[in-house]
Amino acid sequence: MLRPHQVSQLPQKLPSLLSAAPKSSSTRSTPCVEPNIGIHQITRIINDHPFPDRALQPTLRQCIPPSVLSNSFVENVLGRLFAAHSNGLKALEFFSFCLRQPQFCPSADAFEKTLHILVRMRYFDKAWDLMDEIRCRYPSLLTHKSMSIMLSKIAKFQSFEDTLEAFQKMENDIFVSRKFDTDEFNVLLRAFCTQRQMKEARSVFLKMHSRFPPNTRTMNILLLGFKESGDVTSVELFYHEMVRRGFTPNSITYNIRIDAYCKKGCFGDGLRLLEEMEQMNILPSLETITTLIHGAGLVRNPIKARQLFDEIPLRNLLPDTGAYNALMSSLVRSKDVQSAVALMDAMEEKHIEHDNMTYHIIFLGLLRSNGIDGCCELYHKMVERNFVPQTRTVVMLIKTFCQNSQLDLGLNLWNYLVERGYCPHGHVLDLLVTGLCSYGRVQEAFDCAKQVLERGRHISEAVFRMLERFLLKTGEMDKLSDIDRMIKKLQYILPPSKGHAVGVSGSTGTD
Questions:
Q1: How far apart are CA 69 and CA 77, in angstroms?
Q2: Which Gene3D superfamilies does the record match to this protein (predicted)?
Q3: SS3 assignment, position 497
Q4: Are 236 and 244 contacting, i.e. CB atoms less than 8 angstroms apart?
Q5: I need a labelling partner for 281 at 20 to 30 A (CA). Which of 51, 156, 175, 264 fits?
Q6: Interval 159-180 mean pLDDT
Q7: Cα–Cα distance list, 271 to 178, 254, 302, 326 (Å)
Q8: Is the separation of the CB atoms in 121 and 86 below 8 Å?
Q9: Contacts of residue 305, Cβ cutoff 8 Å, sequence gap at least 6
Q10: Coil, strand or helix: which one is 500?
Q11: Three-point CA angle 25, 28, 33, nearest 5°
């Protein structure tokens, strides 16, 4: 249920019980790739491809030799497209291209990544079509994870009834060779718990538990859902209900309860549960200790955090990136940034990888202690190591650069992401365009917005109105018309959601 490599996200994201993810122009010739094509190259080609001006399939046929289509290659490209916030239709086109190659047999991971990209962008009809195609051609790829991906996003974006109907559709039309039992029931419960919809989860449990006999995993999923809702009382009430129903708590159960107390600042209660675990001969896992280290940081107790970290090898466990991140976070919260940076260096010496959480924690600490200067030094090191940060860290850096009048660094980070095949998140564009326009650098703001549209992603209404105001002021109507045309053409393929730009209104264009 909880895997070691996911512990680094434990304080910030739901554990795996709740989870199952340069300018272009239509006239530019498509860059063809050598037979030793790399993941970085094809990701950038897909993201840079003018969309929807030109079909993607011919470009893929021209640039990707069938011989390179290994499962590892396809999975990595799709993983990059997911992390890069690529347009879901482009990812689907790439996966469909791979399916058409006679020598290629897709993996479950490749299918799941494509499905996740689609439902994240609310392309539910295309996601159902994809599941149906896989049912016909590769039914073994239909896993609990793919079911979880679909149901979780339907629970997030659609109604309670829609989610139940989707579950029924999967049972009757998609997973036709499988008899639904407790494991599938757990996936449905997880979909509601992932979205912290505990009333709905409780309702489904009471309605369907007679058909699907619950097990300990079922109860842990619900317990974790209550924990993520931030209500320790509900966690304890459900825990006692779990015991009354005859289920035996395991290490996962205790990890959830410990995390619930730690996040509420009740670190002493977390330590009490650790003692209770040991008395019941339930061995604490690395996740347990990592959660407690993070809890010690939340109450500003770096001494206890260090003590717990040092005990890890004494418990016959090996510290991983998550454990180091938890200790770093504790040190940063106690304003001992120097020790946190030293810990980052120690990780490197022991060949323990830095992940996005590592960088985010240290960036945050440096900003609070040394301001922009310390942040810039680490930023340059990160770029030298070719590490691509996740959206939350990118937003923090862009905001910092813009607020400190370091717009060139902001543009440097933007170009760094784009050159690696990423299409930066909409919030990143909002911050950068605001900063550039406020300093009169409208051309660069226009270029960034155009890059996003060229890659098949919407821009926000706020970005469009800001560009509209400045372009009208400077009389650059051709650029405003260019942006307006791209927005409206994209709407035929990718309808905008609330807050997205819809183009120039009739009155604005004549003012």
A1: 10
A2: Tetratricopeptide repeat domain
A3: coil
A4: no
A5: 264
A6: 95
A7: 43, 11, 15, 16
A8: no
A9: 293, 296, 297, 326, 327, 330, 331
A10: strand
A11: 115
